[in-house]
Amino acid sequence: MYFSGSTQGHKKLWYLYLTLLLACIMENSMNEIFKKIGTTQTLSQKIERNIERAIREKKLPIGSKLPSERELCEMFAVSRTALREALRRLSARGLIQIKKGSGMVVTKINMKDAIDSLNLYYDLKFDVNLISQIIELRLAFEPEIAKMAAQNRTDEDLAGLDANMIEFSKCDPDNTQLESDIDNRFHLGVARATGNPFVIVTMEPVHNLLPRMRNYIYANIEGEKEITLGYHKEIVNAIREKDAERAYDKMQAHLDRNMQVYNKFLRNT
To answer: How far apart are CA 86 and CA 83, in angstroms?
Structure first.
C-alpha cells in the first residue's frame, strides 16, 4: 500500500509509540512479579548470618581462626561497630570464641549449650497449659525411650537407676523439692540408658521443667510418692531384664497416671 511522505511519517511514529507502550507494559509486569524482596535485618545481623552460614556449611571448620577485625571490615565493607555487634552475638550463641590478643576461633557447640538454650526457652514459656503439652509429648516419646533403654542399657546405667530408687524411697517426705529432683533424675537416667545423645538433648530440658509440677503433687496428694516409686520399680525391672515391650508398657502406664493427676488436680488451677 502506498503512503504519502507525511502519512508514512505518522505511521512510523505510531509504530514507535506502540513499541514503547508495549515495552513499558512488559517492564511493569516483570516488576510486579519480581518485586524487591527487601529485608528487616540490620547490617550486623547480615554479617552474623553470613558467618553462621559459613560455619554451618563447614567452610569455617571447628578450630579455624577467623580473619582479624580489620580484615573482616574490609571484606564486608562495614564499620567496626556493626562487625563487633555481629561477633558479640556469635560469641554469645557459642559459635565463636573471642580470645583477647589471639583473635576469634570457631568453637564446637556441645550438648550442654543446646540443652541450656532449650531450658531458657521452656522457662520463659512455662505455665499450666505447657504442663499438659509436656505430658502429651512425654506420652509420645518416653515409652519408646524406655524400650530403647531396655535394649541398650549397661550395667552402669542399671546401677544408677537402682541407686536412684533407693534415694527416692529414703528421702524425707517433708522435703518435696528433693523428692521432685530425684524423680526427675530417674527419667533422665532412663534417657541416658538409651545410649543416644539426641534423646538426652531432646528430653533433658523437658524433664527440667517437671520438678515444679511434681513438687506441688508430692506436697498435696497423699500417697503419690509411693505410687510413683512403684511405677519406677516396674520400669527398672523391665529394663534390667531387657524386656523392651514391658518397659514400653510400664512407662506408658506411668505417664497415663501423670495425665490423670494433672487433669484432676492441676488443669483448672
So the answer is: 5
